[in-house]
């Protein structure tokens, strides 16, 4: 019997790629999104990639009656909860908006799930919960601390869910702490689709490559890293999507009573500097990426990358796509959709 998964934030960057991976793995998917940070066009693109008719509902994850009616009409086995606001800087300016969407959305989803006795959930957490780590690579038992309201919503989201599973042992929750998701589907049909000028490195570099932005500003060339620029753990979004398939299938444990909750890092497991990203991107697009080095961005840390061995142990999952694939897939997406979708 096919299992049915509801995805909140289904047309967003990670949600859209996970939707493709779930269909490919044989799951039925119900997508929910209010398009506050994505485009309706994504639906047609996923449909083209997967050659499927999609089951999509436009709406807000904070809308209890809408969620109730979805859970009433469909036999849902599990939820993957992507829907959230994610811009760190904006969260400092609009904390209430972030706490409302990210926490009320989670509370509402869990309440409706409990009412319908659906107690299997995968939660989008973030490496931001480790703040400025004491050491790298980062393991899941590293101290948790975070500075932005966005980071707080992820930390509080985890805490709410841990309290929930202590109150009712039927809950099975996968806490996935993503490092830096980048790249795009190999078809070039879906990818990261930022509104306005990107805050993050990879979409910024992509827009410089395609000629929409003049040059990259590298935030800091004097970090204690091999080339002085910031080091991060970039993970291909399809590797991340496949991590969700492994997570949900582990929790549902096809057939048996299912496995218990777990918390894992989803990262590639090695650090890459800003200059390394630029050079790999230049190779992928065949053009120079102009840049200048400017002062550090406030709040940035020098280096962080995951120890992803627990995910490999529990989920039998590891990232397989390297920086060259990341850059060539990102470039294909950017070049085919210079103004996004
Ligand atoms: P995204 O903005 O591309 O996708 C989120 C989707 O949720 C969007 O399509 C948006 O329209 C939708 N959404 C937001 N609020 C909603 C609401 N109230 N009701 C219904 N839909 C709503 O972001 P993403 O990069 O795909 O991130 C997905 C999840 O992963 C988020 O929870 C994010 O915090 C987390 N995460 C992202 C990153 C990253 O760097 N991209 C890193 C770590 C964790
Ligand atoms: C990467 C590197 C920058 C832009 C953020 C969030 C984090 C998580 C993922 C959700 C750093 C440098 C960047 C630019 C640059 N999101 N850079 N010029 O800051 O590691 O993580 O996204 O949970 O919470 O904080 O990602 O892509 O912004 O930066 O030099 O124009 O690129 O300094 O070293 P970050 P990023």
TrEMBL record:
Record's keyword terms, sorted: Carbohydrate metabolism, Isomerase, NAD
Reactions that this protein is recorded to catalyse: UDP-alpha-D-glucose = UDP-alpha-D-galactose
GO terms of molecular function: UDP-glucose 4-epimerase activity
Pathway participation: Carbohydrate metabolism; galactose metabolism
EC number: 5.1.3.2
Gene3D superfamilies per record: NAD(P)-binding Rossmann-like Domain, UDP-galactose 4-epimerase, domain 1
Enzyme class: isomerase
Top-level division of the source organism's lineage: Bacteria
Domain (NAD(P)-binding) ranges: 7-328
Names of the cofactor(s): NAD(+)
SUPFAM superfamilies: NAD(P)-binding Rossmann-fold domains
InterPro entries reported for this sequence: NAD(P)-bd_dom, NAD(P)-bd_dom_sf, UDP_G4E
Family in the record: Belongs to the NAD(P)-dependent epimerase/dehydratase family.
Quaternary structure annotation from Swiss-Prot or TrEMBL: Homodimer.
Name listed for the protein in its UniProt record: UDP-glucose 4-epimerase
Gene: galE
